[in-house]
Amino acid sequence: MPEESETDSLDDFLEFIRCLFYGPKEKSKKVEKRKEKLPKLNPKNKDDKPRANDDDLLGVLKVQEKPPGIDLKIQENTELHHTDKYYCTKDEDEVGNALEPELVVRRGQTFKIAVTFDRPYNVEKDDLIFEFKTGTLGDARKETHGRFKLQETGKPKYRHDKWGGYLVKQDGNTIITEVYIPATCAIGEWSFCVTTKTKGQKKSIAYEHPEDFYILFNPWCKDDATYIGDVEGGTEEYVLNDTGLVYRGSAWFPRPKEWNFGQFEEGILEAALLVIMKCFNAKTQFRLSDPVTVARVIAQVVNCCDEDNGILWGNWSGNYEDGTSPLDWYGSPRIIRKYMETGKPVKYGQCWVFSGVTTTICRAIGLPARSVTNFGSAHDTDWSCTIDKYFVRDEAGILIPDKDSNNDSIWNYHVWNDVYMTRPDIKAIKGDTCDYDGWQAIDATPQERSKGVFTCGPCPLNAIKNGEVTIDYDCDFIFSEVNADEIHWEVLPDGSCIKIDMKAEKVGKSISTKAVGDSGIFGSPREDVTGIYKFAEGTEDSRKAVLRAACGAKRPKDAYGGGGEKDDVEFKLMHEANVNLGEDMDIKLTAVNKSEYKRELSGVVFRVFPKNYNGHCSMQAIKIHEIKEDTELVPNKEYEFKCTLKSTEYLPKIDSGRNMNIQAFALVKKTRSRNMQNCVKEHDIELGAPTLNIEMPATAKRGEEFVATVTFTNPLLDELTCCTAGYEGNGFKAVTGQPQSNVPAAGKFEKKFTLKTKQKGDFTLTFKFNSKELHFLSGSGKVKVEA
Description:
It is built from 14 helices and 39 strands. By secondary structure, the chain is of the alpha+beta class. The protein folds into 5 domains: 38 residues; 178 residues, Immunoglobulins (Immunoglobulin-like), CATH 2.60.40.10; 322 residues, Coagulation Factor XIII, Chain A, domain 2 (Alpha-Beta Complex), CATH 3.90.260.10; 118 residues, Immunoglobulins (Immunoglobulin-like, Sandwich), CATH 2.60.40.10; 94 residues, Immunoglobulins (Immunoglobulin-like), CATH 2.60.40.10. Strand 16 and strand 17 form a beta hairpin.
């Protein structure tokens, strides 16, 4: 008979995962089918030896089979291991149906197992041997296999890298054992068996437990490479918090977007392990013990650009008709479930979506993680560790961007992740003086290949800060994102280039993450982590880091040679930081002549373009405003040049992202003693949109209905049409796309949702509104569900 193909196995397993979302009856049928046809995530090695005759086993201690002789103490163990929130550990679903709970534990910690025999356990005559395995080659390496004899007397002694166990107490035919999981074992799904041996008997009996259990990373354990403890809010925020914020907007006004990470929801842990396993085979599965490798794999499989058939399909075109707009996602579970149901990458994601899903996968397996937003995020395409912008002169002599030469870009913002771990792989190269443990940057958004695949990191933040761009992984790329200088080059008629300007403070601003504690929308402030990624701009340490990076770049450019002449005229581009959709905006350019001599300004040009947040401007301008007359600039006097951008000008031309790029150009004429000076200033801005107001009770009774009222006022002078509303959140079944009545111009929208849940706990719900004219509004509310 031909062997079952990997594709068939995957299809069967996907079918099994699908059944997780359709109720316990269907699930039970699929579980039985899976047991008959398909190995587990990590198939067991079974030695099918002939069973001994019953006469040969007289007197041998036997594990009781009916009822099951092994109790995994799921409720007690999961509470001690901080895993009791996982859906698979529950014995009841949201509507009260009975479930079969599974054990989830963390490495570097003990858990209890009760074993019941056919007679009392005799310490003097009986021995008990435990064996744990994961993977098809589970007995080949210590990371995937453990075997030990139960310690029956004395104080338990455990080594951090070895399995062990001891007898806690005995009650009749039942014993309570404590099993230690090594802090260095592979994460994933493990099987185990118990073998009994009795003195005076030649035979032994092996009892293989029918249900596997899960082992995860343990950030509470000092021997685990993911140990974070209470550092910066530690486990409570970066492992257990299942809701949070990702930041968008601009450096001047970061805007939080609610996100449901949902790492404990139904099927998410199983899905997380499945997608990670795509990148491992029988010979490499031992590397699931290494969080460095696992984090790198997660950043690879969240996107679908390689052959691993990852979770999300990226799209920055603005056309999402055959999928879902990235702005319409407010959480990871809906994305992951859709992926598991279809077996195909979900359309579509952009950076904050990739980051949100990455946070979910990381926290699900016990890897501390947070979503991080870098404003003014550079994309260095030629590995120079500089962001190079090229300009040509128009007929008036004013510099304008050379669209044929500009490949590097600066995104309005870019969202990636930090994960927390030690870096013994770097210490092995650098020695004990290594200081690269702690937060590491990873990025699942596909931008550039890293060692042949679309992934990025993990890279120590300390290496990024110091410009040590040769450190693994991808330090040069991430350094450029947060700290590269923007170099301006003029393309001469003969095709050669000369350096005309350098901007050292444009890249890497207001690097933001959700602060520890309650969500920012409920009072917890944004945490600015810029100082962890880079030295303060203008300091000596900052310049040393930039020059160190430039020297270590794969393809450095001669951007730092020569002294150059200091500019006489200081320009500043200014506008309001927080501009809401439908409001006019005043823009001004100020000029101050810092020299002792008069200078002459030859006109000012303002340009405003629609812009994708990833740095690409539309070819069609929203507004071009020219001030053509010359202005004499006397020393130390400030001059202002203004224009007003009206809402009627930008509303028809911006997309659902509400991003614009504001540019100002000016030319200071050459004098006998001073060279010509060019002004090139630009800012990115995201227009604000109304936040939904949510009124709902602070507490509710389990299984009883309560009402959430959603309201907002239409800020536009147009009626809102094709309106829909919905909500999603942990503990509640998502409701999406419910049709709503049109909202009049300047009118009020109101919608009442009736909700209930069978689960107890603290829950965050995100409510959504969408229309043809006003896209993707949201707001959140919290409720504590009590018994």
